[in-house]
Design goal:
about 240 residues; mainly alpha; Arc Repressor Mutant, subunit A; Tetracycline Repressor, domain 2; 3 domains; 12 helices; HTH_TetR; TetR_C_34
Length: about 240
């Protein structure tokens, strides 16, 4: 009888091991098939999408490679095949959002346009408002993200940034008939003001709870109107 129990236990253990192995391969099947360039790009896009969703819904400090891997249904070992830090992922997301922002600026302000300062401020503020998510990433770039990535990744990001920034700098310089140096300074001022405001406008549940606890009602902020006022003021100053 005892021998039969041992055999049954052995069979049960074997079945359990088989189930674990099958579960592992089912969960990791997509990852294993990611061999071609297109498949690897697809994996990177999955990683970025998962990280972006976490970035939108959780404090930065709670986002780790473990939470990213868990959201993907991967192991950390598989995630390490693509990245070594969460900042590398976030830098890639910021790069995508930066590209979208600058492309929208260049499209909205075509060469040799004759827009008034008021129109420029209104359109620019609207674009910044539409790209608030990028502005939030900007607020993390210099103090956090850019400190924990490889030199190669950072160089690639910076090259893309300056290519876009100088292109729009020259466009703005022509529009306002001012020097490229002044134009670039305006661009930076708008970017930094927008990134600061975007973080303030972001509804942090912890901050809200803290203010509720001390009975403070913060003044309402209108991101678009604040940006329009600031941009018009900045443009008028140079003119």
């Amino acid at each position: 009888m005892s021998t039969l129990k041992i055999k049954i236990n052995n069979v049960s253990s074997l079945i359990l091991e088989i189930k674990i192995v099958l579960f592992y391969y089912i969960c990791m099947a997509d990852y294993i098939r990611a061999r071609s360039y297109d498949q690897k790009e697809e994996r990177l896009n999955q990683i970025k999408k998962a990280t972006e969703e976490l970035f939108e819904n959780f404090p930065y400090t709670e986002i780790t490679l473990s939470t990213i891997a868990e959201k993907l249904g991967w192991s950390r070992a598989n995630l390490y095949k693509y990245v070594t830090t969460k900042e590398e992922i976030i830098l890639e997301i910021a790069s995508d959002k930066m590209t979208a922002y600058f492309n929208s600026l260049l499209s909205a302000f075509p060469q040799k346009n004759n827009f008034s300062l008021e129109v420029i401020a209104e359109v620019w503020a609207g674009l910044v408002n539409a790209h608030q998510d990028y502005m939030r990433y900007v607020s993390y770039l210099n103090p956090i993200i850019e400190t924990n990535v490889t030199v190669e990744r950072l160089a690639s990001f910076k090259k893309k940034y300056y290519n876009f920034a100088y292109l729009f700098r020259d466009r703005l310089s022509q529009m306002l008939n001012i020097s490229a140096e002044k134009s670039y300074k305006i661009q930076l001022d708008v970017l930094f003001f927008a990134s600061s405001n975007a973080v303030c406008c972001y509804k942090n549940p912890l901050v809200k709870a803290a203010l509720d606890q001390i009975g403070i009602v913060p003044p309402k902020m209108d991101f678009y109107e604040d940006m329009k006022t600031f941009i018009l003021m900045r443009l008028s100053w140079e003119k």
